[in-house]
Predict the structure.
Amino acid sequence: MGDKAAYYLVKALRTLPDTYFGNNHYMRSVMLETVAAVPGMCGAMIRHLKSLRSLKADNGWISHLLHEAENERFHLFLWLECLKPSTFQRLLILGVQGVFFNAYFTLYLFSPKTAHRMCGYLEEEAVISYTHFLDDIDSGKIPNGPAPRVAIDYYNLHPNATVRDTVLAVRADEAVHRDANHFLSDRIAIKKEDLLSEVREERDKHMAHRGTGSSSFA
């Protein structure tokens, strides 16, 4: 039930940028990233405080969520190299972020599984938005100018990289965040939240497989 509610809520929320920004992809991206950087920070903060209260290790969640939030924040400043928001747009960002932060924080307190599922759907909408961005570049509706310098440095792009290359890199990040949040929601659902133990198990399986393979080859 929570997963369906999260899905339809995200679909409903998408109508707002579709209506207001239309094909203004740069402003849409700025607004998107101011929202996308919130879930990771909320989740990390709540889990950090829980770890302190319970005197128990977090087992990999906090560092991952903080990295996600930082990556999304970088996306924001990357697009700000291409766009200077007006005073009204800055106020709009302030209002949207304030509402979304409090709503998502409350949701994560009561149902982290649903919160991560919602974030996964949000990231899927981000992938779709960046795909439309690429389509408009390819069709000539948006000039394919030089990539922002910060994007070239961050993603180690070619010095002659373009905006299209930047959009591809950012979209790949969003796809990773989408899959990661759905994975985290699934871990909560099956009550297997020790991410570090799972990583160790997979590593041990991989090493055992390599050992078996090398011995049989010999």
User: Anything to note?
Assistant: Residues 1-194 form a domain with the Ferritin fold (CATH 1.20.1260.140). The radius of gyration is 20 Å.
